[in-house]
Amino acid sequence: MTGGGLLVAGTTSDAGKSVVTAGICRWLVRQGVKVAPFKAQNMSLNSFVTREGAEIGRAQAMQAQACRVEPTALMNPVLLKPGGEQSSQVVLLGKPVGELSARGYHGGRQQRLLGTVLECLAELRGTYDAVICEGAGSPAEINLRRTDIVNMGIARNAGLPVLVVGDIDRGGVFASFFGTVALLSPEDQALVAGFLVNKFRGDVSLLEPGLDMLRGLTGRRTYGVLPFRHGLGIDEEDGMGVPPRERSRAGGSVSPRGTVRESNVSSPIGEDVLRVAVCAVPLMSNFTDVDALAAEPGVVVRFVDRPEELADADLVVVPGTRGTVRALEWLRERGLADALKHRAAEQRPVLGICGGFQVLGEHIEDEVESRRGHVDGLGILPLRVRFAREKTLTRPVGEALGEHVEGYEIHHGVAEVSGGTPFLDGCRVGQTWGTHWHGSLESDGFRRAFLREVAAAAGRRFVPAADTSFAALREEQLDRLGDLIEEHADTDALWRLIESGAPQGLPFIPPGAPA
Questions:
Q1: Co-location of 88 and 153 in the same domain
Q2: Contact of 363 with 339, CB cutoff 8 Å
Q3: 432-489 tens-digit pLDDT
Q4: Measured distance CA(301)–CA(83) in Å, rounded
Q5: Interval 58-66 mean pLDDT
Q6: Which residues are catalytic, by number?
Q7: Where is the CobQ/CobB/MinD/ParA nucleotide binding domain (predicted)?
Q8: Does residue 211 contact residue 172 with C-beta atoms inside 8 Å?
């Protein structure tokens, strides 16, 4: 028997598809439904390693957590990891299979993957009561429709009803809803069941006349109006962008450069605030590594790109990147390389993660990622890095600072460490630390021990909260997403869609209508 299904599409990228999908998943699992997430094709530098050693998008790993199931490669069969403006690494069923240009991918390779994608979806639907699928970008990208395997292409082939999400906070949501439907073929339109308004601020009654007009124009209903909520953008798909904001548990108003205009961040016992600066390197990957730091009361995390922004930082993080050599050049061009070396010499804390660990070393031999051969690193840590063609994808477990640590590794670079104090798989010299392990800071005991070391080196009277559980905070966020769906969407109608498909007889909207 095939389980029910739904495709959550969006009028644009960043309309809220990922969080809406997670919210629907969490609502369903709380109703006793056995549910799984699915995204046929994901473009993101934010990835995760499953227990079987497969690389998938972190958004799908987060959605699997919303479903209370273990993530697998079936949930994200195709992952594209941008390596620049024109090319991406293609990860198929969790393993890299090569680099392709956008033209090469959309010119034929993408369509050949449709069979694999449909097989994965069919396997999930044969195992679960419901599969909630997430689209990508907009289903009305008509220039890509012929080769589409993630929006209407998958909906048509799998007979999935489609719910279109629109971000009303951006403006123009009614035109976006109408235009999205009007640009689709009659066969695609027949699957678009209706709309979901996201990020609404104000009195819903003021919106209702527009929703009524939209139904009159399209013949399709709106399944809910979700209110704007701060702090729900968890494990976003970053694409090529840099998260332009400061992160902290308390939040605050943030400028485009990521500097606080106002914030009420405070330490749990009224002591010093700990400031963390993250170098916003090109092709930054897995910037979610610092989310666990931002979850600590009294810790402020900001993304920076100028050396003077490191001056008041108690800890500087050099994060992962899909372009290690390019990131190294960027650090030098910006003057951040000299600032990092100066910090290390002064015994001020620096943490390098994955690609950020590699740039802190002495030498890099890269014939795989940049194909630049021998490149000098910053020379802060005693290691040499050689890029291997086979990617390391593991879920290591270990101990550091007397605490249990779990993480995951995603890298081509193989590090040969020749000195310093062992630190996870990397090393420590003075107050400079380096490791390939993503996610290690989500281990609560280790994070607190690390922050105590940082605070002591920085001369801060900061004491991390003893009761902060990152896993519990994540569960709390997922429950808030489930609450949004349960309280602000027509859940009975949503379940009918999932169980029975799009309503029959939905009208066709010719492009350009109404006159």
A1: yes
A2: no
A3: 999 999 999 999 999 999 999 999 999 999 888 888 999 999 999 999 999 999 999 9
A4: 26
A5: 96
A6: 354, 438
A7: 7-240
A8: no
